[in-house]
Amino acid sequence: MAELHQAGEIVQDRYRISHVLGQGGIGITYAAEDLQTGDRVALKALSLRRMNEWKVLELFEREAKVLAQLDHPAIPRYLDYFQIDHQRDRDFYIVQQLVEGRSLAQEIANGWHGSESDIQQIAEQVLDVLIYLHELKPPVVHRDIKPQNLIRQPNGKIALVDFGAVQDTYRNTQIGGSTIVGTYGYMPPEQFRGKSLPATDLYALGATILFLLTGRSPADLPEVRFKINFRDSVDISPHFADWLEKMIEPAIEDRFSSARQALRALQNPKNLPSIEQRIKALDIQHLLNQTGDRPVSQRRYEKPLGSRIELKKNDYFLEIDIPPTGWHGEGVSLLIFAICWNGFLVFWTSLASRAGFFALFSIPFWLVGIGMAYTALSTVFGKVHLLIGDRNFSLEWDILGAKRRIQGKTQDLRPLELKSFYEVNNQPVMQLCLNQGIYSHKFGSGLSRVEKEWLMQEINDFLEIWRSQH
Hints:
This protein has 13 helices and 21 strands. The longest helix has 23 residues, at 330-352. The strands form six sheets. It has a six-stranded antiparallel β-sheet, with helices on one face. The chain has a five-stranded antiparallel β-sheet with strand order 14-15-16-17-18. The protein is α+β, with helices and mostly antiparallel strands and 470 residues long. The protein is elongated. Its EC number is 2.7.11.1.
């Protein structure tokens, strides 16, 4: 911890200390005057001698490095970084533009009670800053969004300060490991495990909005299954409450996928279904098959009569379970053909092997035969599970307990296609192809043509709506 400077003390022959603005685990911040320009600045100081671990200095230097790259009107402008050596110590300093105003924590302590409209405007302003931070390359995660770090200026504008916990997500992903920093009550579960992503800041913002609405720390509000139960403590519109519910979801995949999506949903109620609609959508197969209810933003395709495919779909995920076809359908024909094909290859290869290298000519035919056998077995005995979420997707094949799974990002998916890769008895075997970048993942060869076309319509419709919202 840096030594406390006295009011009137001059640092580096340039900055005259006025008073202490704040004191935390990574230094002390002072209000000061730049003697060269006459501007008021914020001077953040860190003492090497008083640090209890080197990680503190790493965070301090990272803060300076990140601040130097930022340019947003709601983020105090970075001015300088320097160090001063003493006989038995070294002090480090970050100089920033001083933001006039009071933190939201101070505003609440002084009796301020904003209306729902006031608080929603604060949320929109902070989301605008987070859009800027998260869409940088690489993204920047603040990791300590809280009322104390949001300054309400005299003109009503909000400024985001204190980047001492900031994280460069590229660095964390490539090198691994993360310091657990943040403030209890505003930290989502993944942050306690040392993991921080852009959605981490969304949770913290949601918790901050709860504080503004209730005047209480989110940690003091009741919880149900690790989720803050706030509805009995606030008096706000259903839309704002539904939006807040999604911001503070404990599971990161259940939150908004981006600050931009969160802002869009906040400003337009149509982009966020009510809690009743979400419950209805999550009562998946019964509602889809029995009542036909579906969020209004999605088109409705009729499930083919007699199909055993289970499809669960709402505005935030699509889940499909394809059961084995069993001993009927084109899978059986393909299996019989594969057995005959490979049986003949065994006989032909055994004869050809007597002629030496001539047997090598059978290799391409073996590859085709093995491929047909695998497709046939997966059709007759295999199950397929496809899940496309707001951020990621997974496709899993299960053949008699032997599983194979691929995963990726939803943003990499291209429209599904129906393709033929080979023929059986002069008839093309059509398969659904889930295209991920340059890769193509095949499934559904044992389904009827009408089932394949139905699934292709449903999946492509979901992806089209997903892209329109991101």
